[in-house]
């Protein structure tokens, strides 16, 4: 029985996917030569390709720059109060809204910066928050 289970597991996890995996690997290595990836440990390579999945939301708050706002403005204080009360999944959704990805790039959370700007419109009650994902700017009406 043990031999059968071992052979079956080997077939399911190795033999049955060998050809599709070799095709994938050949295509991947054509675009991303292996010699450049060998400098990474598997964990480091995962971060480079996927980004960071663990977040320090207070560090994110510290890395914000403000345009037409000051850190102690009421709108900003209210924003961060509400933000920190959000569940983890909603915070990730905000990150996706702001940057186009729900993960922080591989260069590290301490280097991830964004701006909060006042769109300076006549009637801020008529404007919803919006984002410029390319430049990571959140336009937050007063």
Question: What is the CA-CA span between the terminal residues?
Answer: 70 Å
The helix content, as a percent range, equals 40-55%
Order of helices and strands: HHHHHEHHEEE
Given the helix and strand composition, which structural class is it? Answer: alpha/beta
CATH architecture of the largest domain: 2-Layer Sandwich
How many H/I helical runs? 7
Beta-strand percent range: 5-15%
- Report on the biggest sheet: 4 strands, mixed
Placed side by side, the strands forming the largest sheet appear as 1-2-4-3
What is the CATH topology of the largest domain? Hect, E3 ligase catalytic fold
- Structural domain tally: 2
CA-based gyration radius: 22 Å
CATH superfamily of the largest domain: Hect, E3 ligase catalytic domain
Mean pLDDT: 87
Observed structural traits:
142 residues, alpha/beta, Hect, E3 ligase catalytic fold, 2 domains, four-stranded mixed beta sheet, 7 helices, elongated, HECT_dom
What's this model, at a glance?
With 142 residues, the chain is an alpha/beta fold. The protein has seven helices and four strands.
Topology record:
Layout: H1 2-13, H2 18-31, H3 34-37, H4 42-50, H5 57-62, E1 64-67, H6 74-85, H7 88-99, E2 114-117, E3 130-132, E4 137-139
Kindly describe this structure.
It is a single chain. It contains seven helices and four strands. The protein is an alpha/beta fold and 142 residues long. It has two domains: 1-39, no CATH class; 57-139, Hect, E3 ligase catalytic fold (2-Layer Sandwich). A hairpin with a 4-residue loop joins strand 3 and strand 4. It starts with a helix and ends with a strand. It comes from Fregetta grallaria. This is HECT-type E3 ubiquitin transferase. Pfam families: HECT.
